[in-house]
Design a protein that fits this description.
The protein is α+β, with helices and mostly antiparallel strands and about 230 residues long. It has helices at about 1-15, 15-30, 35-40, 45-55, 100-165, 175-185, 190-195, 200-215; strands at about 30, 60-65, 70-75, 80-85, 90-95, 100, 215-220, 225. The protein folds into two domains: about 1-120, Orthogonal Bundle (Arc Repressor Mutant, subunit A), CATH 1.10.10.10; about 165-230, Orthogonal Bundle (Arc Repressor Mutant, subunit A). Helix 1 crosses helix 5.
C-alpha cells in the first residue's frame, strides 16, 4: 500500500504540465532558474515553486556555482508511460519501466483521486480559516470604532449641554442652538435646515433672520453658514 501511495503522489506531481516541461528541459542539461523561466516562458516565482516541490521529492537536486547561483539538475529521472494493449487486454501503466498490474493501477488511480480530494478539502479549509480570521479582525475593528463613536457622541452631548448652559446670552432658546449645531457640520439650504432641525418654515425663517442680525449666521448663494468667530 505504501508503494501505491508513493506512486500516486508522484503521478499527482507529474500531472502538472509545467513540471513535466521542467523535467524535460533538465534532461538536456542543468539550468539556472532564470534559464528555465526564459526558456519555458514561466514566471520565476512559479518556476521556484515547481523546483522546490520536485526537490522535496528527490526528483531534482541543486548546487551552487562560483557566483553563488543555484542551478538544478535531475537527481532521479522519472519516465511515466501509458500504453494500450491490443486484443482487449486493457491498458498498462509503467513508471521507470516497471509495469503496474491492472488492480494496482486502479488502486493508484483511486489513491490519486483521494489525494486530490484531500487537497481540495485542505484548500477549502484554509480559505475558510482565512475568511474567519479576516471577519474576526473586521469585527474587532468595528467594535473599536463603535466604542470610539460612543465616546465621541458622549463628548458632543456634553459640549452641547455646556454651550446651552454657559452661553444662554448668545443662544436664546433650544431652536437657535439646534440651527447652530446643524451648521457646525456644513453649510445648508433653508429646506435642508428645516429637515434637520424640525423647525417649520416660518419659525426657521425667523430664527435665521435673528441669527443673521447678531452676526452668527450668514447666507451665501442660497446656503446658510456660520460666520466670524462662530465658524472657527
Amino acid at each position: 500500500m505504501h508503494d501505491i501511495v508513493e506512486t500516486a503522489r508522484l503521478l499527482d506531481i507529474l500531472g502538472n504540465r509545467n513540471r513535466r516541461r521542467i523535467i524535460e528541459l533538465l534532461r538536456q542539461k542543468p539550468c539556472f532558474v532564470t534559464e528555465i523561466s526564459d526558456t519555458l516562458m514561466l514566471s520565476p516565482k512559479a518556476v521556484i515553486e515547481h523546483l522546490q516541490m520536485m526537490e522535496r521529492e528527490a526528483i531534482l537536486a541543486c548546487q551552487t556555482d562560483e557566483r553563488r547561483r543555484k542551478y538544478y539538475y535531475l537527481a532521479n529521472d522519472i519516465l511515466v508511460e501509458v500504453s494500450l494493449k491490443h486484443g482487449g487486454t486493457g491498458q498498462e501503466i509503467s513508471i521507470n519501466g516497471q509495469p503496474i498490474v491492472a488492480d494496482e493501477s486502479r488502486a493508484i488511480a483511486e489513491e490519486a483521486e483521494r489525494h486530490a480530494a484531500r487537497k481540495v478539502v485542505q484548500e477549502q479549509s484554509e480559505r475558510l480559516k482565512s475568511s474567519v480570521e479576516m471577519l474576526a479582525r473586521m469585527i474587532r475593528a468595528h467594535d473599536r470604532l463603535a466604542d470610539s463613536l460612543d465616546q465621541l457622541n458622549h463628548d458632543i452631548e456634553t459640549k452641547i449641554t455646556d454651550i446651552a448652559r454657559n452661553h444662554n446670552d448668545i443662544f436664546r432658546n433650544e431652536r437657535e442652538l439646534s440651527v447652530i449645531i446643524a451648521l457646525c457640520h456644513e453649510s445648508l439650504t433653508a429646506e435642508e435646515l428645516q429637515h434637520v432641525t424640525g423647525n417649520t418654515g416660518d419659525m426657521l425663517a425667523s430664527l435665521l433672520r435673528r441669527l443673521e442680525r447678531r452676526g452668527i449666521v450668514e447666507r451665501k448663494e442660497g446656503r446658510y453658514q456660520l460666520q466670524g468667530v462662530y465658524a472657527e
